[in-house]
Write a structure and sequence with these properties.
The chain is α/β, with parallel strands linked by helices and 346 residues long. It folds into two domains: 133 residues, ATPase, nucleotide binding domain (Nucleotidyltransferase, domain 5, 2-Layer Sandwich), CATH 3.30.420; 180 residues, ATPase, nucleotide binding domain (Nucleotidyltransferase, domain 5). It has eleven helices and ten strands. The chain has a five-stranded mixed beta sheet with strand order 3-2-1-4-5, with helices on both faces. Strands 8-7-6-9-10 form a five-stranded mixed beta sheet, sandwiched between helices. Helix 3 links the parallel strand 4 and strand 5. Helix 2 packs parallel to helix 3.
């Protein structure tokens, strides 16, 4: 079964062809980072215009790379939320038109569910039914979630950030430190050789056991507002740290605090749910320091770690097509694509 996936939820224009939910035949991602870098973040109007210009060439490239023709496609899949409304609209409109023209079924896929599925794009990972239930840490520029995944069609949020996502915290920290955009990779570079214990930045949401907004347990949730404020005050008091060789230690300590908060909640969830497998997905999962800490955690909790392949950590269409194919093969009818859903929950 060949599925053509389309992903335009934010600032990557992506298309992919995936066979039977697991075999990626093509994977095209056109990044807009250069267009948004002067503004220090994604500008929705710029993003949607760029999607309109790039989507059809990206789709043609995906088919060419897969060695497939339009009529070879069995189903289309598109991200219909969450994301930027104007960006989602470009992908959804194109997907609906193609599905009508080709007379093929179209599945609407939740962007977050796509990220959860991305670990299964690694051919060395067992089938979902073999390793579920598992706890998944989803860490991106816009979302930070702890999720219990029982199957490809069943997931339950255990915890989430109450303010910024970890990716946003890294972006804003990079801005305060005078680094580039996107912030995560720049903080990682700046932290090389730094002492991660030099500055005791807060880990956020430590202590207490009562529920927070939404009824989620406090010890499964995240907060990064205090971390950013601590960095702001440190650099206000010591602006010389940006130029006197102290920056690697500041960056390493800031990054460590951000990741310690993730690992603390993840460990609590893995132990409480008594699972044998856990995973990490999303753009922040590309960070090598985080991957090393996850490996250490796997040994401490005696569970097997699965991390999304580097190429499928950031937003991509392979995870969208892969999940759609797996759901179709599992007998689940395609979710209708009636509109875009910018705030679509998991």
């Amino acid at each position: 079964m060949l599925v053509l996936g389309i992903e335009t939820s934010c600032d990557e224009t992506a298309a992919a062809v995936v066979r039977d939910g697991r075999e990626v035949l093509s994977h095209i991602v056109l990044s807009q980072i250069a267009k948004h870098r002067p503004y220090g973040g994604v500008v929705p109007e710029i993003a949607s215009r760029a999607h309109m210009e790039a989507l059809m060439p990206v789709l043609d490239d995906a088919l060419r790379q897969a060695g497939a023709a339009w009529n070879d496609i069995d189903q289309l899949a598109v991200t219909h939320g969450p994301g930027l409304a104007s960006s989602l609209l470009v992908g959804v409109t194109a997907a609906r038109a193609l599905a009508m023209r080709l007379d093929k079924p179209l599945a609407g896929i939740n962007h977050l569910a796509g990220h959860l599925y991305s670990v299964f794009l690694d051919p060395t990972v067992a089938e979902p039914e073999s390793i579920c239930p598992m706890i998944v840490l989803l860490a991106t520029g816009g979302h930070t979630l702890l999720v219990r995944v029982d199957s490809i069609s069943s997931a339950r949020v255990l915890g989430q950030t109450l303010d910024d996502a970890v990716g946003e915290a890294l972006d804003k920290g990079a801005t305060l430190m005078g680094l580039g955009y996107p912030g995560g990779p720049e903080v990682e570079k700046a932290a090389a050789g730094g002492d991660p214990e030099r500055y005791p930045f807060p880990r956020g949401m430590q202590g207490g056991s009562g529920p927070v907004a939404g009824g989620l347990p406090r010890d499964r949730c995240f907060s990064y507002s205090g971390l950013k404020t601590a960095l702001l005050y440190l650099l206000r008091a010591h602006p010389e740290y940006l130029t006197n060789g102290e920056l690697p230690h500041v960056a390493a300590s800031y990054q460590e605090a951000a990741f310690d908060a993730l690992l603390d909640r993840l460990e609590r969830a893995v132990r409480a749910e008594r699972v044998e497998h856990f995973a990490c997905v999303g753009g922040v999962a590309k960070n090598r320091r985080l991957r090393a800490k996850l490996e250490d955690l796997a040994g401490q909790v005696n569970a097997q770690l699965h991390v999304a392949p580097m190429t499928y950590c950031t937003d991509n269409a392979a995870m969208i097509a892969g999940l759609a194919g797996a759901l179709a093969l599992g007998g689940f009818p395609p979710a209708p694509v009636d509109d875009v859903h910018p705030n679509l929950p998991l």
